[in-house]
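Q: Can someone sanity-check these two? First one:
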Amino acid sequence: MAEENVEMVDYGWQHESNFEPQQVDVQKYTHQFGRVLTWEADPWYDVCRSWYETCYIHAGISGFENTISGPDAQKLLSDVSINDVMKWGINRNKHLVMCDENGLILNHALFMRDGEQAFRTTAGNDWPFMRLLAQGGYDAKSTVREVFVFQFSGPKSLTILEKLTRTDLHDVKFLEVRPVSIPGIEGEFEIDRIGMSGTLAYEIRGAKEFGPAVYMAALEAGRPLGLKRLGWRSYPVNHTYGGYPQMTCTFETACYADPTFPAPWPIVATGSVEPENVRARLRSVGEVGWMWMAKFNHDFIGRAAVEAEAANPARTIVSLKWNPEDLAEIYASLWQEGEPYKYMEFPAAQQEPAGGHQDYITTLDGKKVGYSATPIYSSWWHTTISESTVDVEYAKEGTQLLVQWGDYGHRIKNVRAEIVRYPYSNVTENKDYDVSTVEHGENL
C-alpha cells in the first residue's frame, strides 16, 4: 500500500470548526479539540430529564469522518478489532473496539458499512487503524472530511426527525443507516438509529457546511415537542446511566501510554488515585463489560491478552450509588474551617473531559478493590452514581463499599457506596423500542 493513499488525520487541535449555529441564548460555549461547541444551552437540570420525557439534540461529537475503502479495508479493521467484522451487513453499524498488545482499549467507536469495500467512522480515535494502514501491506485508502453529527434521544426523537425530513422513518431498524433529505436544505444527509442514552435514539449526519442550517431546522421542528439542547456539561450523564463506558468520560485511551501517539496533551489526572498511576485511568475489555464483543475466530492486535482476560477475569464494571448523606457533608465542608473536600460540580462532579479522573474504591475495612470514574447526578433519578470497575468477587448488587473522593495529596472523603444495577437506567432500550407507539411526525 503506497503511503500517498494514507491521509493521516489532522485532529483539528490548531483550527476552529463550528458545526452548529452560534446562538445568543446559549449560556456557555466550550473550545474542545479546536472546535467551538455548546457547553450548556438549556438548563442542565431540564436537559438531563429530556431523554426520558421528550428529546434532546446534541452536536458535540461532530468532527472528522474517516472512510476506509479498498479490497483490504475489511481486513484492516479485522486486524485491529476484537469484533468479528466479516459478518456485517451493508448500511449497518458495528461498535468496534481496538486494543494494544496488553489488551487495553485504544479506541472504541461506531463504524458504518457503506459497501463491500467501504467503511466509515465519525467518532473515537482513528490512530490505531491509521497507524497500521500507514505501515503498508493493505490495499486500502483513507479519505477524511468534516461532518456534523447531531444526536437525538428520547421518546419524541423519531417524531421530531420525521417532522424535520417530512418522511416516514418508522421502519428504520436498530443500527440501520438510511439516506434522507431535508426540505429547503440542498445536501446529502443520513439518519442512523443509534444512541447512548439507553432508549429510542437516532443520529443525523451530513457535510459540515450544512450543520448550522440543519440544527436550526431541527430546533424549529422540535421545540413544540419539547426538544432540549444538550451540551458537553451534561453529555456524560446519559452514558453513565445508560451503561455506555466512554473514553474521555469514564476512562482514557491507552494511546497515551504509547510514546509514538501524536497527541499534544497528557492525561488530566484527578481523583484520589496517584497522578502517575496511568493504568488506573485505562481500561481492559473486561473492565468495561465488553468481553461479549470479543470473537476469537480471527487474529487481532492484543488477542492473547484479551483471551487471557476472558479466561480469568479480574475486574468488571458496576454502578456505584453514592450515599446522599456523605455527599451533603462534602458540600457542608465549604462552610467549615480548614481545607474543604473537593468540590463536586453538577451534573458531573469532575466535568468533561474527565476520563483521567479515578478514585480508589475500598472495602469497609480499607482494602483497595477497584476504581471509580467521576460521579454523575441525574435529575430524573435524583441520585448520584459512578461507573466503576471492581474485583469480580465484590461485583454483586448490594455490596457496600467506600469511594475515596478527592484529589491525591488533598483532603479525602470516604463516601459510602452501594453496588446497584448496571446499567442503572431501566427504560426500554433502543433495540427493543416499539416504534408503533410513537406518533408520526411527517405531516405535523
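And here is the second, same format, sequence then C-alpha cells:
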Amino acid sequence: MSRKIKSATHSEQLLTGVARLLSDTTHKHSDVQLNVGGNIFHCHKLVLALKSSYFEEKLFPLSAAAVEQIVLNDVSADDFHKVLQFIYTGEMELNEENVENILRNADLMKLTELTKFCVDYLTDTVSTKTCPRYWKIAEQMNLATLAWTCKRQCLKEFEKIGSSSELSSLSETMMRELMEDDELVVESEVDVCETLMKWLNSQTQSGHSAQPFHLLTLVRWSAVPVEYVKTKLITNNILMNDRRCFEFLSKVISYRLTGVQFNGLNTFHRPSTGVEQCVVVVGLDTAPDTSSDVLRLNLQRQDHVTDIDAIPTNMNLELAACVSGNQLYITGAGSGMKETWKWESAFGWVQCADMNEGRRRHCAAFVNNTSMYALGGFVDEGNVTLDSIEQ
C-alpha cells in the first residue's frame, strides 16, 4: 500500500533556512564570493542561480572550471546588499531614494520579479517632479508601460516642467513626442515656444547637441504672433546658428503677414488652447428644397461633426455666409432673399436689418466690428447683374 505524505512545515523551514544563510557570519555553507566595490559577499551558488539567470550563466557555465569569485562592476555594495536580501528572503523595502538603482541592478541580474516590483513602484509614484527622469529610465530599459505613464504626466504638466530643473532631463526624442502630441496641455502656443527655448538652452549648457529645426516644425504657428517670432525667435543665437532654422522662421514671418502657407508648416491649434479650426456648412441641398440645417466640421477630427441651431427662416439657394470673430452671419435668406441673420453661442439666431434688395450668388465680407458688406450678385427679375455694394 502506498501513501503520499506532505510536510506542513517543509516550505517554511526551507525558506527560513535559506534566509538564515545570508546572515550566517561563519560562511561555512558559502561556495562563491561576490566582489562588489571591494566588499566581499559570501554567497551560495544554488540560491543565486535559482533566482537569477544572470548568475546561472556566470556560476554554472557549460564547460569551465569552478567559479569561486565574481567581480561586479558599476554596482554599489549598499544596493547589492538589498538585492541579496530579496534573492534570499523574497522581501525588501523600496523607496524613492533606492528604487532607481535597485531597478538597474535587478535588470542587470535578470531578476524579473524584482524588476516588476520596481517598475510598479515607479509607475505608481509618477509625479510632475519625477516624470521626466522616470521616462528616460523607461526608454533606456524599454519599459513601455512606465514610459506611457510618464509621457501622459508630462503632457498634462508641460508648463510646470518647463519652469523646473527637470526640463533638462527630457531627451530630444521625448521633447519631440510631447510637442507633436495634440494632447499637450498649454494655455497658448507661445508657452510651447518659451519652453522649447529653455530646453535648448539647458541642452547647450550641459554640452548636449540638439536639432532645433525638427522641433520648430512641430510648433503650431497659426497661434504664434509675428512680433514674437521677430523679437524672440529670429534673434535667438541657438536657432540662428542653424541655417535651416533661419530659413524656416523667415517663411513663418511671411506666412503670418500674408497668410500664404508652405510645406512643413504646422497650423492646427491644440485642443487645450480652446481654439477650434472648423468649417461651417450653412444649409444643405435636399432637393427640391434647401434645408436650414447648420453643421460644424472639425478640421482636426474629421469624424467630429456638431449640429448648430437651424436657421429660423426660409432658405434659398446661393445665399452667402461669413464669420466675424465668434459670430456667424448669413445674407440672402427669407422669401425675398433680403434677410440677414446673426448666430452666436450665447443667444442663438437673431435677425438683423434686411438688405435693400435680394441678391443671388453674392459675397458677404466683414471689414470691422460694425459693418458688413454684400458684394455683387444678381436679381431674378430680368436676370439683372448687380455691381453695387451694400453696407
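A (reply): Looked at the second one. The mean pLDDT is 84. The domain at 11-125 is CATH 3.30.710.10 (Potassium Channel Kv1.1; Chain A).
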